[in-house]
Please model this.
Amino acid sequence: MKQQKPSRTALSVAANLLMLSYNPIFGQLVPKAAIEPTRWCLRSIPGLTGKTTALFDYPWMHTYMGRVEQSILPGVSIHTAVRKRWIEEQVFHEIDQGCTQVIVLGAGFDTLAYRLHHQFRDVRWWEIDHPATHQVKRQALTTHGKLHPNLTFLPVDFTRQSLANVLATTQLYDPHARTIFIAEGLLMYLEESDVRTLLHTIQTSSGPNSSIVGSVLAPKPDGHLGVQKANWFIHLGLKLAGEPFKWGISADDLDIFMNDNAFEDVKVARTSVVVQSYLAVPSHVTLYEGEYLFLARRRNS
Model:
């Protein structure tokens, strides 16, 4: 990611979600309460990028963007919406089971914490992300929305600070409380050693029954990391943006990996399967494969 600009991936994910919200079939996958905050964030991006998002209201733009997605990365918008919905369901379940803290790592322009901190006022929420992305998001939500004290934005450059240090110095964070950490679309950008460090930090800096939920990139059949069915343009763009893929693991091997890092009760789900429980998918629609969803619980000592 360019140091002074919001993450290109965060921008792409938010734009895909907003465009999908206009779809007569798949728009129902996007929470209605997420649409306006997502639009606020996109339109708050400085320069031409923010101005261009005003075009999303036009039907011709929906058609154009749909064709672009179909040629570059078919089904990614549906995948993103299902991914977010499934993760949100896990967060609801954890809160119902006694979780009192939620930490969103690499939050981007995701609206989960913003929306749910209104609903669950007795739960503390933190969003941790690069300062450049946080600046745009916080400005947008402060200007157009309402923020309560139980939501905190932590602008962090992880090239200079560790998560362990951030948690140790974060006001009101309770290392003994049951916490869920959200790592959606994040782990693929970390080295394996950094993923292990992250899991160790969660294990040692959160209370019993704490968990991590998120997504993992599965290696392609040839063993290389990359987005399946994506053309060369995607991988080149990620490299130029400073956001190349660094880590992935197959769903079959995730349980062993998590157990090696003191996590258990691993649950895995695929968006191409999960979506069927939400709506009937037309036979001609391409569903994205290559990234799967998971939840794992820290082993209690």
The chain has a mean pLDDT of 91. The chain has one domain: 8-298. The beta strands are 101-105, 124-129, 151-155, 179-183, 211-217, 263-269, 291-298.
